[in-house]
Amino acid sequence: MPRICFLINPKSGTDRRQDVPALIAQHIDKSVADYEIRLTEYAGHAETLARQAAAEGFRTVVAVGGDGTVNEVGRGLLGTAAALGIVPRGSGNGLARHLRIPLALPAAVRRMCRPEFQRIDVGHINGRAFFCTAGLGFDAHVSKMFAQAGTRGLSTYVKVALREYRHYQPTAVAVTLNGQTLHTDCYVLAFANAAQYGNNAYIAPLADIRDGLLDLCLIDSLPIVRAVRVSLGLALGNLPASGAAVFHTSRHIRVQAAAPLGFHIDGDYAGDAQEFEVALTPLALEVAK
Ligand SMILES: Nc1ncnc2c1ncn2[C@@H]1O[C@H](COP(=O)(O)OP(=O)(O)OP(=O)(O)O)[C@@H](O)[C@H]1O
Questions:
Q1: What whole-number distance in Å separates Cα of residue 69 and Cα of residue 103?
Q2: How confident is the model at residue 155 (pLDDT cuts 50, 70, 90)?
Q3: Ligand 1: does its nearest atom lie under 6 Å from the Cβ of 115?
Q4: For FRET with 267, which of 52, 63, 152, 156 sits at 20 to 30 Å CA-CA?
Q5: Are residues 98 and 194 in contact, defined by beta-carbon separation less than 8 angstroms?
Q6: 1-16 per-position pLDDT tens digit
Q7: Which PANTHER family does UniProt cross-reference here (predicted)?
Q8: Pairing label, strands 214-219, 180-186
Q9: Which CATH number does the domain housing residue 86 bear?
Q10: Of 68, 92, 115, at which residue does a domain stop?
Q11: Judgement on whether residues 16 and 100 belong to the same structural domain of the protein
Q12: Measured from the CB, is residue 133 less than 6 Å from ligand 1?
């Protein structure tokens, strides 16, 4: 019988009152899978736990959390024989939504018992893996401010984004891809493996997680009229057709910024840098969906 290891981030999600281990026990189909539950104790712990679980022979290691937890578990599973599963508990759930994993816990747990296995591409930015999106500029800046906001959820995110929009300035960058160098300003430069940031905000609706390419979305400036068009494009999934952003596809991108620029990995602020090396490894991770 296949073995599933559920790794729960007790800090993720907005509803902490739920007894997640009890709900998993209630909804798992014990006739098709054996399971164990382990809890993370600190940020970064899920990566170690995932690698351990893979070494112990679990077929699927399930991230029970948001995209931050999914990223840690995915990193831990790279190069192992175990597949990444997801029981979405975050506020955005970008990868779970892209893979069409149910958002409700009971249905997601049942899906993990009888999943379809599939390999997906994996992105790297300055050597760090991402599975959904990474990016430079305003979205990374908002992730940083959001992490300091004290409360979470979509409404806090929107509040922080509107506040920061008033004074955020773009940075000059040179972007090398497909044998050419573009000299431009970077308000947002997103590298999309999956189509959305989470919350059905489609930064690159045409992104295919198995095509061996990253979809780049470049916004060089964001005056108010364009900000409205970008917001609508994100919500409606028609940003490329809207003309409010420029798109490219590539497997390897280099960015040189005129000043240190914040970047995010799967929605979590990851630091500032002036040089970025972004690459994609095709079909490097198996997922259970
Ligand atoms: N036991 C823990 N204590 C404190 N932090 C933890 C613990 N386990 C995991 N974390 C950290 O919590 C962070 C947030 O988790 P995650 O992204 O899964 O949830 P979220 O922020 O609620 O969801 P979303 O990213 O969708 O908003 C992760 O970056 C992870 O490193």
A1: 15
A2: confident
A3: no
A4: 52
A5: yes
A6: 899 999 999 998 767 7
A7: LIPID KINASE YEGS (PTHR12358:SF106), SPHINGOSINE KINASE (PTHR12358)
A8: unpaired
A9: 3.40.50.10330
A10: 115
A11: yes
A12: no
Return all residues near 63 (Cβ < 8 A) that are at least 6 apart.
Answer: 7, 9, 46, 50, 69, 70, 72, 73, 74, 84, 85, 86, 87
Q: Assign residue 257 the CATH number of its domain.
A: 2.60.200.40
Q: Is 266 in the pocket of ligand 1 (CB under 6 A)?
A: no
Strands 214-219 and 246-250: antiparallel
pLDDT digits (tens, 9 = 90+) for 76-112: 999 999 999 999 998 889 999 999 999 999 999 999 9
Give the residue-averaged pLDDT of 115-126. 98
Residues 6+ apart with CB under 8 A from 213: 121, 249, 250, 251, 280
Q: Residue 49 is encoded by which pair of tokens?
A: 């736990």
Q: Which of 67, 25, 71 lies closest to 46 in space, CA to CA?
A: 71
Overall number of domains in the chain = 2
267 lines ligand 1 (CB under 6 A): yes
Tokens standing for residue 12: 């993720």
Going from the Cα of 86 to the center of ligand 1, the distance in angstroms, rounded, reads: 14
